[in-house]
Amino acid sequence: MTGAAPVAGTNHGLVDIAVIGGGINGAGIARDAAGRGLKVLLCEKDDFAEGTSSRSGKLIHGGLRYLEYYEFRLVREALIEREVLLASAPHIIWPMRFVLPHSPEQRPAWLVRTGLLLYDHLGGRKQLPASRSLDLSQAPEGAPLHQEFRRGFEYSDCWVDDSRLVILNLIDAAQNGARILPRTRAVRARRDGEVWLLEMQGHDGTAQTVRSRALVNAAGPWVQDVIQGVAGLNSAQSVRLVKGSHIVVPKFWAGPQAYLLQNADRRVIFVNPYENDLALIGTTDIPYQGRAEDVAIGADETDYLLQVLRRYFRTPPQPSEIVHAFSGVRPLYDDNADNPSAVTRDYVFEVDGAEGAPPLLSIFGGKITTYRRLAEQAMQRLAPWFPKLSSAWTANRPLPGGDLGGSFDDFSNGLARDYPDLPRTLIQHYARLYGTLARELLGPARTSVDLGHHFGGDFYEREAAYLREMEWARRSADFLDRRTKHGLHLTPAQRHAFENYL
Fold it and tell me: Which domains occur in the chain, in start order?
C-alpha cells in the first residue's frame, strides 16, 4: 500500500470526517456529512467511480428478483429510494418499462404476477406506472421475440447514469466545503489521541496528511485492505467478491422498452436501451478471487449472455457485433450463501472505536440504489462522536443540475429554444448529463464554432474544459468513459486524437 517514496506535500489540518473511497457510498457520505456542516475530506486512489460504481447495470431499482430470497426490507428501502432519487436527479435518472416474457420452465405465471403486485405496492410507488400483463402475440413489445413467448408482464424501474451520480454527489459535497482528492491513496492511518492521523500519497508521489475525528472506510472491494493494510486492524466481517459483466451491442429491437429475461439457471438478464442506438446486456454473477483492479469479462460470460439472447430473440446480436464490454467486482457482504446470485445486496456497518477513541466506520456491501439511505445511516452510526450533528437533509434536495422546475422534456425544449443554433442532439446530450448546469457549461456559446475543437460525435473542446475544471477529469477515460460516454461514439482514431490533445 506504500507505493513510491513520498515527496514533500500538504498538511490538511483537522477535519471531522475523512472518507476513504470515491465510489457511490463514499461520495454519498461526503455529501451528507458536508451538508450537515462537518469538515470533510475524501480521498480516492484512482479516478472517482473507476471501480464498481461505473460498472453497474445502471439501474435504480428495487431488485425484483430479491423477493425470491425474502429480502423484503431491502426491496422496500430500495423502492422508496427509487422515488427519492428520481425526484432529485431527473436529468440522469429516468423511468424505464421492462418487459418480462413468461418462461413457465423457470417460474409459474401466478408467482411472477404476485411478485409484481408486491413490487408495485411495497415501496409506496407514486411516480411510476403499475405493472400489467401483456399478450405478446399482439403487443408490439412481443414482435422481436420468438413466437413461443406469447404471454408476458411489464413493470417499471429507473435508469441511472451511475458514474455521473457519483460525480454529482461529489460536486455537492465540494460546494458544501468538502475537500475532494482524486488519485490520492490512503497509505497509513493510526490513532493519535482523540483523532486519526491519515497519511495519503498522490499519484505523483506527493505526501498529504490530515487529522480527522472520524475515519470512514468506503473502499468497496478494497474495504479489508483499508482495515488491515492501512489502519492495521482486524475485522469480524468480510466481503464476497462477485464479478458481473456486461456487453454493449447495437440496439436490435424497436421501441423504448427494456427486457428482463429469465434464464434456465434461474438468473435474470437485463436487455436495456443504451445511448440511444445501443443496448446494454447483463449481468453475470461469478465468484471472483483475483485483484479487483484486474477484473475483465471472460469468453464464457460473453457466450452465456449471447445464449440467453438467442433463446428469446428472433434476430439476436452476433459476437462480431459487440462494440464494448466491461466487468465490475461487487463487494457483497458475505452472508455465507452458497449461490452468488443469492448473496445479500444489503449493507452492514462495522464501527471500531471504544468510548473516547476516534471511530473507524467500515461499510460492507450495498447497492447503488440505496446509497443515499446508507449515507444517512452511516451518519447515525457516527452521531455519538458528533453530539451536535444536525438532522438528515438529502431526501428532499436535488442533486446539482436536478432542479429542472418541471419535466425533463420541458427543460430540454427550453434549452433548445435558448440555443437555437446548436444541434438538437447536442442539446439533448447537455441536458441529460448536466441538467440546469448545462447553461453554465455553454456560457456565451451560441453555435458549434463557439464550442471549440470538435473531437467527434457530440464532444467539443468546451465540454472537455468544463469537465477538467469542474469535475476533476484528467485522463482520457475520465472524460470519455466515466464523466460521459463519448468514447462509445468516437472512432479509434478520434479517441487517439483526444488522448494526444490531453
Answer: 10-52+164-238+344-396 (3.50.50.60), 91-159+240-333 (3.30.9.10), 408-501 (1.10.8.870)
